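Re: folding output
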Amino acid sequence: MAASNIIPSLLLKDAVDFSEIKRVLVIKLRHHGDVLLSSPVFTALKAQYPHLEVDGLVYKDTQDMLSLHPAISQLHLIDRGWKKLGVRRQLEAEWGLISQLKQRQYDLVIHLTEHWRGMLLTRLLKPRFSVCQIYARRPGKLWKKTFTHHYPVNAKHRHTVEKHLDALRRIGLYPSDEERRLTAVAGDSAEHAVLDRLAEQGATAGEYIHIHPTSRWLFKSWDVDKMAALINRLQEKGHTIVLSAAPSGDEMRMMEDILERLVHPVINFSGSLTLKELIALIQHAKLFIGVDSVPMHIASATQTPCVALFGPSNEREWSPWLNKHVILSSNHPCRPCDLAGCGDGWRSECLSQIQVEQALNAVERLTS
């Protein structure tokens, strides 16, 4: 018997006997990147106990982060648009979801956030076992009594992936190094669409640098002039550049500012990619350059080398995961502050201190 299986039986008195578990529900109700960082939980459960049916519950708009994951049996969705349907239709939608989940008869529920909905669903589903992190903002008896297993984390000094996997360790499952990797699957349709578009632009898979300069939180983004200067320098060195950005107004305006400063044309897919196509584009790049946002996490999932610029957010929690990467940040004593820019002013001076030469050197290290 492997040592990882002996430890729970000797020391963890309330370890879960997975031979008695048939179905598991993993709940992750957060943003896209957070959902992708939960993907190793599904991998580890299925890899170590192939008999399990492992389901997920996420918001509808984040489903592409986990859909096609080979370890997931069913992916259940909550549509944030339900609240716009009116009280009666919203309640019908909510009850439909609850009925669907009840039919699955889960033996184990793993709740990976402090969202109240996960707590209520756990109480309604009445699994034999349930596990959740200890949250300072959820100290009440109702929350504590809902779950059979609770686990602590070092919030600021532990990567988010490991925090998720601690839920498994708490119940006696210790993931291997390979099982800790992220999983993001583009799918054949997205693959073909992206490869066709690249071919139309004269680009070849594995021969371009993909840059996603923006984030939905623009205070995480590098200065426009520095990003444009980096692109110009990379083109001077002969690199083919492909740009992308989400279709939001703020991000598209930022991309327009960058494009106005470029000396030569680039391949620009900004605002025109689905999430699955974004996965495919990053997967086929020789290098990804971006900030702390979901495309950076996708680069980790696709094992694409990555240059990541970090400002107010904490790289100990959110850095690229188990892929070849270089993190660029400043030595400001106040970072990471997790604020929306300095003084919540939506401009992060720590990011502005990162110089173009630093980024060029990082690219050289990863592509040489």
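--- second protein (sequence, then structure) ---
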Amino acid sequence: MKIKKRIFTYKPQPILHPCKALAVIFMFVVLLFSIALLLAWQGILFTSWQSNWQFLFLMSALLAISIFRDKSQRIKFPFWIQQHLIDPKLALDLKEHALRSSDAVIVDYREVREHWWQGKQQQLLLKLNELEEAKWFSVDLHQVFASTLFLNIHVQLNSALIGQQIWVHYLARTRTIVQLYAHDQLDDFHQMKNYFAMPYTGNIYFEQIPTRLTLDLPYLSEIHAVREEDQPGYLLKLKTSYGQSYRISSQARHFDKLELALSSAIDFIPYRNFKHQPTMQSALLTKRHPQRVTRLLLCIIAISVFIIAFLFKAWFWACVAVGCLYLLYRNIQHYRTSPFIEDPDVNVT
């Protein structure tokens, strides 16, 4: 994922000009309605457009709204349109990719509504390392953690956030947080208790900002247990599908919670043998790739549909097969690409 796509994915773009937004929606409704009338006139949709134009107009309006509907801000257009509807400073931040990064401490939190047509906006009062005074930063805590497929991470504004040390990426002019995570405290895994029920799918709720390792669990592809002479106990070496590595000591606090969070990915037979046989210096614990079933299923469907398309010489089924292959490619690329903004991506000019 390129830096531009990261920023646009993680950053909501609230509209400041609702009348202009409605005008854009109406223009798209008219465009879709015109196309529908043309298809109806040609007899592709209906035999007669005169008796169905009301239905076509309603469907055009619903389609236009559904295309541009956005969960976090109600409506969101492509940026070449959106830039004329949002805060000019935010538009400039987005154009220039004006990212900054810093460590910070959460001092306070609040929810504000700047305009009646917008939803409530979350804000964090942060004391940045390079700033003398704490300042308010806008954030959508659901949006900044919405980078993982098949996993929804939710962090609610609450008093447990106050005092937490985090690493934050934000846009310079508007002080809008694009991404944040807690400093990697690899000696304490108390937050992992929220991960037990569904380690790789579903909804997970945190009272505090999760660490980078916590966010990386769905991307883990290799797990090794090793013993080192200068280390008490043993180490778990975790590697993600995009190359990030972690070294976790078994002496870390709440290490048992990390083990439970990894339970669906670990083969516990070699893990048990490794624990009970001190002479074993290492063991591969990975049971299977977390996306193995999904990718295998997509491959089987694509091959089956290709066979059907070849036997019946149907272009429709061939297009369906190509769509399955595209989903497979997207899945592979998603897990090969880091979901995090890295320091080299930050524009310091």
